[in-house]
Amino acid sequence: MGAVYVAEQIATGRQRALKLMHPGLVSSRELREKFTLEARVGARIASEHVVEVAAGVEPTSGSPWLAMELLTGEALSHALKRSGAFTVDETAIVLAQVCHALGAAHTAGIVHRDLKPENVFLAESRRASESYTVKVLDFGIAKVLEAARGSNTRAIGSPLWMAPEQTERNAEISPATDVWALGLVMFTLLTGKSFWLAADQQEMALSAFLRELVLDEIPKASVRAAALGVPDTMARARSLPRGRQAPSARSTWRATSRSGSTRRSVATGRARAAPERASYAEVPGRAISRPRVARPRAPKRAPARRRPMSAFAA
Fold first, then answer.
1. Mean pLDDT to the nearest integer, 190-210
2. Domain check: are 47 and 81 in the same one?
3. Rounded CA gap, 63 and 250, in Å?
4. How confident is the model over 145-170, as pLDDT tens digits?
5. Which residues are identified as catalytic?
């Protein structure tokens, strides 16, 4: 729908990612509304894990533009292709930040509807204690629940990450839609593989995938992981979210942190090699190093009993 450029903000001298709408699409009011939706939605989400976006219109041509913070790093999908599955601790660090972004969006009455590794960006951090900051991207197709009254007028999203209700017209869209995708992202982080068997085919047939999603009985995550040859990773993770039972991203993260992957301090320096600057979506940067998680010493006293996991199942 547009092109992304690196631009310098005159007032501050700071570089930004500037997205311009394609001139051939400017005449369409509907497309102009979609183009600027991300700025309007992003302004309502109180989280540093959502990209800051400002919108405007070029006075001469009438073409809308978006100005965004310029991020350095790589998409989570690129990191998975480069290094494979994440450890349990690395997964916990990523999910904590993704859940913060989704929780803030859900509080504002917004459902992302297209959460996937391509829309999770590992940006070089400005904090000394972290090697990267996670940003959730592309709220351009987000659903504002208040305005839409919770209904789905058409199927929107990426098939392998869609919840069952996204395949039906007029189905209810809620925060649980994002939690479903969150569970699939967690599975892929821990295993390096897609949850769906149809994804392993050379040419994925949409009909085969939809049969898995809508008609077939969906196995537990640990069972599917064992079938894919990665049982040890899932045993260490202990549990994955079952999207229909977890009401929100916030409660999903609280339950996940109690199940074994607790929030731990990250003791890391900057990335070993400074990655190239990249726009947050269209131009991937070079890889950045994963955080090195400080391993806790053995406790001197017996640990407290863990709370039961009613909303999760391995």
1. 83
2. no
3. 38
4. 544 444 454 445 578 898 888 888 77
5. 114
